[in-house]
Amino acid sequence: MTLFNILLAIHVLSVVWWIGGVATVTASLLPIFNRLPAGERIQWIKRFENRFAHQARVAVVLAGITGFWMYALLPGAITHAWWIGLMLLVWFLFVVMLFVAEPLRLPAKIGLIQKPRAFLLLHAALLTLALAAIFCGVIGARGGF
Ligand code: HEM
Question: Is 104 exposed, middle or buried (0-12, 13-18, 19+ CB in 10 A)?
């Protein structure tokens, strides 16, 4: 078992916890919440957010530390691969959302959270991008591209 193997395992576990949560909220919870009266809907979204946001932050930090560490251990040809760039893009978007937009309550301030369809679409777009990063990362890591 090498250091790289351990970093990769922690990286993948962090991604599973974090993107699994994003998939649950997008495909199951938001469609249920969107059927509730407006006030109740916002309350349930906030309840879920209060529980999951801290977990997602820890997972994003762990995925970042392990990702950059593996990046430093790998030869140049792999670190310049486009699918690593896709992972970086997804990571950066979630860092901005979880560490800047959410603590400043920007989604509520710009009225996004009050728009059920737009809020669901934003989550669906982020989930799609994250799934694409996983799909391409797994194939790319095996020299598939
Ligand atoms: C700071 C951001 C990130 C960096 C620097 C990074 C870097 C890396 C590196 C260097 C590897 C190892 C590739 C190899 O074995 O050749 C890897 C693997 C992986 N990464 Fe990331 N990553 C980041 C974020 C993400 C994100 C956001 C996702 C998914 C949404 C992701 C999903 C994966 C997966 C699934 C693998 C495993 C590939 C496999 O061996 O099957 N990573 N990442």
Answer: exposed
